[in-house]
Amino acid sequence: MNNNWEEVIHGLIHTVPVKEESSRCTVATNICWYGLQTNKNHAITLTVYGGQLYPSGKRGRISLLPREKWNYYREESDRSILNMLQSVPIQENYSHWSYSSGYDKSSAQLTIPHTMAAVLLAELARSNRCFLDHANKIKNHSNFNEEKDFIFIDFYSLWRIEFEFINQKGFIAIDPILCRDNLVLRFSDLDFYSKYGVFIHEKMVGLFHSDEISKFAFRIIDENIEIPENQRKNLLGNIYQLSFYDRFKIEKKHEWQTITIRPKLRIYLEENSEGDSEETFQITAVPVFIYDDLEIPLRGINKDSAMANLVFPSKQLFSIRNKSAEEELFTQLLASGLKQRPPTVADSSDRQLFFDNEKILEQIEQLLDLGVEILIQGKKVRPFRRGNFKISSGVDWFDLEGSVAFTDSEELELPEILAKAKIRSLFVPLSKDSVGIMPEKWWKQCQNLHSLANKNHNGILKFHKSQALFLDYFMEKSAETKRAKIKLDRSFQKLRDTLK
After folding, report:
1. How far apart are CA 484 and CA 245, in angstroms?
2. 63 has which bridge partners?
3. Strand 386-393 to 183-186 pairing
4. Which of 149, 355, 470, 487 is the most exposed place for a label (fewest CB within 10 A)?
5. What is the pLDDT of residues 8-17, one digit of tens each?
6. Long-range Cβ contact pairs of 139-145 (< 8 A, separation 24 or more)
7. 413-460, pLDDT tens digit by residue?
């Protein structure tokens, strides 16, 4: 459907007075509605009947009539008119409609209180994202005070809004003010239909833009008309998020301290195992930007949003997002080897990055060196640093002692590691605040040690002499990682030399 509703708009903002005996004000003008599901242009007369447009208790009627005898398309046009009426979000208890069809014309009539007629007209104008700008009349307020005149105004393109705070016995009441040149309107003087994004004042109907900013504004207005004094900071914080838009202004006496914050990077890890036999793991990273105690998801890095402004109500601080610093941090993420999800995947997952399983330790270490905080399930991640092993020989057994170090102060004995290796996870708990991550190759080696060890006595694993070949293989693979410190007694070293 063609979204050009320019003629609809011109029709809505012009008034045609009727004869005195009718004592009614009529908007009756030919408007062009493009599309109408027939791919043909239909001329439609839109007529609004009412008393004066806004006095309470009056009722009005809206009729839509095809102007020409379009017999061939009549049935399809009829359905289009009905669909349009039914799509307008008017509460059922406020309205009813009737429909009739004849040889040369069809009509659909909607009977509603005529204050709601203004809502309907606004909804029709807005349904294709087209807005009314009649600035010439606004600049001269007296122009639209004529008895039979009224005007539609697009709030989004014409107005700025200020907030005035009124102390009332322990409460703070906000009274937003709409300002445009010499015209000032207080919200408390307006009839509001926030569900429909419309306000009514005398001969004016204000049309709010139906996007993120207006929804946020209405939420503040609806939920915070009166709030306890102790919640004032939170309300100001909400309002500050709107001050990114030029038309939202804060009184100087309520201004907060503006600060500059350089974001930090935090990564939340998620672990998924794949396959029943291969037992491979996939570690995904969900990055967020940290401004003091606020988290900003990566998905919004290149998108305008209400989070362009950052507020800290408890500290009465205000900051603007540093997009260039965020881009720099994101570049560092990609430089460490993390991969983005292919573009064919749904946008809902575009904030996830993926580690290379073969290089995950190096990637995590590189990110930690850059000052990136890495967490899984709320705990800090410590990468595997080295394995310490010692083999001593007995008469019929080889004794294996060992430990795995993650930091200088966080180390697990080999039996603890083996016990945790029963669980299919690369992560092992270290303390209440941290977990260690082991390479997948080490995890599989530990699984083998656990399955082949004959005894576990006071932290020492015992292997039969016949298992010397396996121990030799384990030590060789451990040495290849360059993350193992191995100490062998003379007897086992001699046996290794013999095996080679």
Report:
1. 58
2. 47, 109
3. unpaired
4. 487
5. 333 333 332 2
6. 139/181, 139/182, 141/182, 141/183, 144/203, 144/204, 145/202, 145/203
7. 887 877 776 676 788 888 889 999 888 778 777 777 777 777 666 768
What is the Cα gyration radius of the chain?
A: 36
